[in-house]
Design brief:
Structural class of chain A: mainly alpha
Number of strands of chain A: 4
Largest sheet of chain A: 2 strands, antiparallel
Largest interface: B-C, 58 and 52 residues
Shape of chain C: flat
Order of helices and strands of chain A: HHHHHHHHHHHHHHHEHHEHEHHEH
Oligomer: heterotrimer
Radius of gyration of chain C: 20 Å
Strand content of chain C: under 5%
Radius of gyration of chain A: 24 Å
Structural class of chain C: mainly alpha
Chains: A mainly alpha (about 625), B mainly alpha (about 210), C mainly alpha (about 110)
Number of helices of chain A: 21
Number of domains of chain C: 2
Strand order of the largest sheet of chain A: 1-2
Largest sheet of chain C: none
Chain lengths: ~625, ~210, ~110
C-alpha cells in the first residue's frame, strides 16, 4: 500500500480508512474528534446549567431536567471529553517522543477508541429513550442511583462500563509500548516528561478502573437483576458504592491532571529554550503524586462518618500531595527563569495555568482539612475547587497541547491571533465563572440545587458566574473557527516549528505513517537538542535503512464495540420485556465471534519494502 | 520476519515466547492486565467481606459450606496449574505433541472444576433456597465466585481455540507467546481461587 | 530470528537447566498442596480459636500464592522486573481497597 495509491479517494474510502485504522496517529485524530464532540456537548449542558442559575428562582428548565443536566455535564466532561482528549494526545505524541514506529497493540488501540466512542453514544441515547438521562449525579451514589426511576442510570452504568473497558485497554497498550518499544538509547530517564506522564497515568488507569468496573457491575446487578448489594433491607450497604466509586474516581482526577503536567513540562522547556529544571525531581514528583493519589479517596467521604482516625489519616495523606505538586510548580517557574521565552498561544495557556491551578491546589488543601470540610462539603466551594483544577489544569493543558502539537498532528499551524483571543476570553471567563463560586459556597449555597432564593446575597455572584460562562463559550467558538480556518487555509507547518527538543520534531509534520524511516539513536535527554547543539541538527539513525513491519487495518474493533453496545441496549431494556434479551445474546455473540476471528486468523501485518522507502526519500 | 515457520531444535530460541517483539508485547501486556485484575478481584473480595454476615435471616456461610467439595475443587485447580507448567516446559523443549497433551489435561481439569462449581451452585439454590437475590451475602457470594468461574470459562474457551487452531501446524514464534500468555492467565485464576477457598469457604466455616 | 549458538554442548546445558527448573516447580507444587491440606485440616479439625486459625490460613494462602507467582509464573527470573513492579503496584492498590472495604465500611 503506497502513499500514491491512497491519495485519491472518495469520502467512503476516507471513512472506511478511519473506521478500520490501527495507526496511532489516526486513532489520535479519532480521539480528538470524539472527545471534542463530547466536550461541546458537555459545554452546552454547562451553559444550560448556568442559564438556569443566572437569576433567582429561575424556571428555564424543570428540576428533573436540571438533575439530568448536572449528571450528564459531569459524566460527559470527565469520561467522554477530558479523558479521550488526553488519550488522543498521548496517542499522537508519545510514540513519536520515544522513537517508536507504532504502539505495542495497534489493534487494541483501535478497540479502545471504539469502545469509548460507542459507550459515549450509548450514554447519550438516554436523552431520547427510556425516560430521560441519568439524574443521580456523576457520582451516582446509592441508594439514589438504585432508586432512580426510568432507565437513566441504566444508561450510565452500561455506557461507562463499555467506555471504561476501552480506557483500560488504552492504558495497558501505552504501558507495554513504553516498556518494549523505546528507541535505542532512550532510557527511562531520558524520556520527555509527557511520555513519563503517559506511563504513570497508564499505571493509574490500570489500577483505578477495575474498581469502577466492579462498582458498575454491582449497581447493574442491583438495578437489573435484583441483587441486594445496596439494598439495606436485605443487608446491603450503600457505603460500598462510595468506596468503590472514589477508589476509582480519586486516581481518576490524577489521570486527568498528570498528562497535562507532562504537557506543560515539555512546552515550558521548549518555549523557554532551556532544559527542564529538575528533570529527575519532576519524574519522581509524578510518581509520588500517583502513589499518594491512591491513598486519599476517603477525603471525598469525610462527612460520611468514618470516624476521626480514618478522617485524620486521609486528611494528612491528602495534604502530603501538595508537596510533589509544589515541586512541579517551582520547577516550571525555575525552567522559565532566565529563559528566552516565546509567548505564543501554547505558552499563554501555560502561563495562565500556573496561577489558576495553584489556586485550585490551595482550595484543595483547605478541603483536605477534615474539620473544615464539614463546612465546605457539598457547597459551591467544592464546585469552584474542582473546576479550578480540572478546567484551570486539564482544559488549559489540553488547549496548550493542541496549540503546541497541532502542527505535528495535522501539518498546519493554528492561527496565532485567534489562538491568543481564545486564551484571553476563556481565561477571563473562567475566573469570572468560578472564582466567585468560592464565596457563593462559603455563604452556604449548596451544589446541585435547581434554584436559589432571592436576596440571600447569592444573586450578583450567580449572575457574574453566568456571564463568565458565556465568555468561555465565546472563547471555545473562536477556537472552533480557528480550527476550520486552519484546516482550510492555515500555514503549512515545517517539521520543527518551535525549535523543539524531543524526537517528534525530528520528523516531518505530519509524520509519515511509519513515523521513523530509520529508528533513531538517542544520545541524551532532549535528543534533538543534543544534536542541534553539536551542529548536526538531525537525529543519528540507529539502524541501516531496511524493511519496516506494519500492522494491518481491521474492521473487527468496530464490530466488537458495536456488539457490546447492542448488548448494552439489551441489558437496559430486558427489565421491561424479556424479549430484549435477544439483543443481549446477539450483541455479545457478535462481539465474541469477532474476537474469535481475531484469535483464529493469523495477522502478521505487512512490510514496507526498503526500495519503496528509498523512492519516497526526497 | 518468518515467524510462521515451524521451529526445530536447531532454530529454537531459549524463550520462544519472548523471541519476537510481538511476543514481548503480549508477555508484558498480559502481566500488566493481571496487575489490573488484582484490583478487580480485590474489589470483589472487599465487597464480599463487607457483606458476608449480611444474611438478612437467610442461610449463612456456616449453614451452607461443606469442605469436601471445595477441597476437591481446590485440588483439581491446583493440579491444572501444574499441568500448564508442564505444558510450558515442553513448549520450551519444542515438543509440541507433549505440550498439547498437557494442555488438554489442563482443559479437562478446568472443565471438571467448572462442573463441580455448577453442581455446588445448584445445590445451594435447590436445597437451601440460597440465591443471588436472597440477601446481600448471597449477591456478594455468587458475584465473587461467579466472576472467578467466568474467568475459568473464558480461559477454557481461549485454550480450546488455541489448541484447535494450532493443532496441525505445530509450534512457531507466532503462536508460542499465545500459549505462554494463556498459561500466565491460568496461573492467575488459580491464585484467585487460593484466596477464594481461604477467605470464602474456610473463613466462612470458622464463622 | 534470534540466533543462538546451538552447539550440542549448550543444548544439553539448557536441557539440564530446564530439568532443574522443573524440579523446583514440582517441589513448589508439593508445598502448595501441603499448605492447602494444612489449611483445610486446621479448619476442619475445629480445635483452634478463630483468632488463631484465620491468620494462619491467610498466611498459608499468601505463601502459596507467592510460590505460584515466583515459580509457576517465573516472576523470579530476569525480564520480570516490570511485571513484578506492576504486580506489586496492583497488590498495593488491592490492599488499600481491601482495607477500605473491611475497616471503614460501617453498618
Amino acid at each position: 500500500m503506497s502513499i500514491a495509491a491512497t491519495q485519491k479517494r472518495g469520502f467512503g474510502a476516507f471513512l472506511w480508512d478511519y473506521i478500520t485504522t490501527v495507526d496511532h496517529k489516526k486513532i489520535a485524530h479519532l480521539y480528538l474528534f470524539g472527545g471534542g464532540f463530547f466536550f461541546l456537548l458537555g459545554g452546552l449542558e454547562a451553559m444550560i446549567i448556568r442559564i438556569q442559575l443566572a437569576t433567582p428562582e429561575n424556571d428555564f428548565i424543570s428540576a428533573g431536567l436540571y438533575n439530568e443536566m448536572i449528571t450528564m455535564h459531569g459524566t460527559t466532561m470527565i469520561f467522554l471529553a477530558a479523558m479521550p482528549l488526553l488519550l488522543g494526545l498521548m496517542n499522537a505524541v508519545m510514540p513519536l517522543q520515544i522513537g517508536a514506529r507504532d504502539v505495542a497493540f495497534p489493534f487494541l488501540n483501535s478497540l479502545g477508541f471504539w469502545l469509548f466512542m460507542f459507550g459515549g453514544i450509548l450514554l447519550n441515547f438516554s436523552w431520547f429513550m427510556g425516560g430521560g438521562a441519568p439524574d443521580a449525579g456523576w457520582t451516582a451514589y446509592a441508594p439514589l442511583s438504585t432508586q432512580s426511576p426510568g432507565h437513566g442510570v441504566d444508561f450510565y452504568v452500561l455506557g461507562l462500563q463499555i467506555s471504561g473497558a476501552g480506557t483500560l485497554m488504552g492504558g495497558i497498550n501505552f504501558l507495554a509500548t513504553i516498556v518494549t518499544m523505546r528507541a535505542p538509547g532512550m532510557t527511562y530517564m531520558r524520556m520527555p516528561l509527557f511520555s513519563w506522564a503517559t506511563f504513570i497515568t497508564s499505571v493509574l488507569i490500570l489500577f483505578a478502573f477495575p474498581a469502577l468496573t466492579v462498582g458498575l457491575f454491582l449497581l447493574m446487578f442491583d438495578r437489573m437483576f435484583g441483587s441486594a448489594f445496596f439494598d439495606v433491607a436485605l443487608g446491603g450497604n450503600t457505603i460500598i458504592w462510595q468506596h468503590l466509586f472514589w477508589i476509582f474516581a480519586h486516581p481518576e482526577v490524577y489521570i486527568l491532571i498528570l498528562p497535562v503536567f507532562g504537557v506543560f513540562s515539555d512546552i515550558t522547556a521548549t518555549l523557554s529554550k532551556k532544559r527542564l529544571f529538575g528533570y529527575t525531581a519532576m519524574v519522581f514528583a509524578t510518581i509520588l503524586i500517583a502513589f499518594l493519589g491512591f491513598m486519599v479517596w476517603a477525603h471525598h467521604m469525610f462527612t460520611v462518618g468514618l470516624g476521626p482516625v480514618a478522617n485524620s489519616i486521609f486528611a494528612i495523606a491528602t495534604m502530603a500531595i501538595a508537596v510533589p505538586t509544589g515541586i512541579k510548580i517551582f520547577n516550571w517557574l525555575a525552567t522559565m527563569w532566565g529563559g528566552s521565552i516565546t509567548i505564543n498561544s501554547a505558552m499563554l495557556w501555560t502561563l495562565g495555568f500556573i496561577p489558576s491551578f495553584t489556586i485550585g491546589g490551595m482550595t484543595g488543601i483547605m478541603l483536605a482539612s477534615a474539620v473544615a470540610d464539614y463546612q465546605y462539603h457539598d457547597t459551591y466551594f467544592v464546585v469552584a475547587h474542582f473546576h479550578y483544577v480540572i478546567v484551570g489544569g486539564t482544559v488549559f493543558g489540553i488547549m496548550a497541547a493542541l496549540h503546541f502539537w497541532w502542527p505535528k498532528m495535522f501539518g498546519r499551524i493554528l492561527h496565532e491571533g485567534m489562538g491568543k483571543l481564545t486564551f484571553w476570553l476563556f481565561f477571563v471567563g473562567f475566573h469570572l465563572t468560578f472564582f466567585v463560586q468560592h464565596f457563593l459556597g462559603l455563604m452556604g449555597m449548596p451544589r446541585r440545587y435547581w434554584v436559589f432564593l432571592e436576596d440571600q446575597g447569592l444573586d450578583t455572584g450567580n449572575m457574574v458566574s453566568t456571564i463568565g460562562a458565556f465568555l468561555m463559550a465565546v472563547g471555545v467558538v473562536i477556537f472552533l473557527i480557528n480550527v476550520f480556518y486552519t484546516w482550510a487555509k492555515g500555514n503549512k507547518a515545517p517539521a520543527d516549528p518551535w525549535d523543539g527538543r524531543s524526537l517528534e520534531w525530528a520528523i516531518s509534520s505530519p509524520p509519515p505513517y511509519y513515523n521513523f524511516k530509520q529508528t533513531p539513536l538517542v544520545r541524551g535527554l532532549d535528543p534533538l537538542w543534543v544534536e542541534k547543539m553539536e551542529g548536526k541538527g538531525e537525529i543519528t539513525p540507529a539502524e541501516p535503512l531496511g524493511d519496516i513491519h506494519m500492522p494491518n487495518s481491521s474492521i473487527l474493533p468496530f464490530l466488537i464495540s458495536l456488539g457490546f453496545t447492542i448488548a448494552g441496549f439489551g441489558f437496559i431494556f430486558q427489565v421491561d420485556h424479556s424479549a430484549y434479551l435477544i439483543l443481549v445474546f446477539a450483541g455479545i455473540g457478535l462481539a465474541l465471534l469477532s474476537m474469535l476471528i481475531r484469535s483464529l486468523k493469523d495477522d502478521h501485518g505487512y512490510h514496507i519494502k526498503k526500495e519503496e522507502l528509498e523512492r519516497e526519500a526526497d | 520476519m518468518s515467524h510462521d515457520h515451524s521451529l526445530n531444535p536447531e532454530t529454537m530460541p531459549q524463550e520462544p515466547e519472548k523471541a519476537t517483539l510481538e511476543g514481548r508485547n503480549k508477555f508484558y501486556g498480559l502481566w500488566f492486565f493481571l496487575g489490573g485484575e488484582t484490583v478487580l478481584f480485590a474489589s470483589f473480595f472487599g465487597t464480599y467481606i463487607a457483606l458476608r454476615n449480611s444474611t438478612a435471616g437467610g442461610p449463612a456461610s456456616t449453614d451452607l459450606f461443606g469442605l469436601g467439595l471445595v477441597f476437591a475443587m481446590t485440588m483439581i485447580l491446583l493440579t491444572s496449574s501444574l499441568t500448564s507448567v508442564y505444558a510450558m516446559y515442553h513448549m520450551k523443549n519444542n515438543d509440541f505433541k507433549k505440550m498439547q497433551l498437557w494442555l488438554a489435561i489442563t482443559a479437562f481439569l478446568g472443565l471438571s472444576f467448572l462442573a463441580l462449581e455448577i453442581y455446588e451452585f445448584t445445590h445451594y439454590i435447590i436445597d437451601y433456597g440460597f440465591t443471588f437475590r436472597s440477601s446481600a451475602f448471597g449477591s456478594a457470594f455468587y458475584t465473587l465466585v461467579g466472576f472467578h468461574g467466568g474467568h475459568v470459562t473464558f480461559g477454557i474457551a481461549w485454550l480450546m481455540a488455541l489448541m484447535v487452531r494450532n493443532a496441525k501446524r505445530g509450534l512457531n514464534l507466532y503462536n508460542a507467546p499465545k500459549f505462554y500468555t494463556f498459561s500466565l492467565y491460568w496461573h492467575f485464576i488459580d491464585v484467585v481461587w487460593v484466596f477464594i477457598f481461604t477467605v470464602v469457604y474456610l473463613m466462612g466455616r470458622v464463622g | 530470528m534470534t540466533n543462538n549458538t546451538n552447539t550440542n554442548h549448550v543444548d544439553s546445558f539448557e536441557k539440564r537447566k530446564k530439568k532443574e527448573e522443573m524440579k523446583k516447580q514440582l517441589i513448589s507444587f508439593a508445598l502448595m498442596i501441603g499448605f492447602t491440606i494444612i489449611a483445610f485440616i486446621a479448619v476442619a479439625a475445629d480445635v483452634m480459636e478463630p483468632m488463631f486459625v484465620v491468620p494462619l490460613i491467610l498466611i498459608l494462602a499468601v505463601v502459596q500464592v507467592a510460590f505460584q507467582f515466583y515459580y509457576f509464573m517465573h516472576m523470579k527470573d530476569k525480564d520480570h522486573e516490570m511485571p513484578a513492579t506492576l504486580m506489586y503496584g496492583g497488590v498495593w492498590a488491592a490492599a488499600l481497597t481491601l482495607a477500605g472495604l473491611i475497616l471503614i465500611v460501617w453498618w
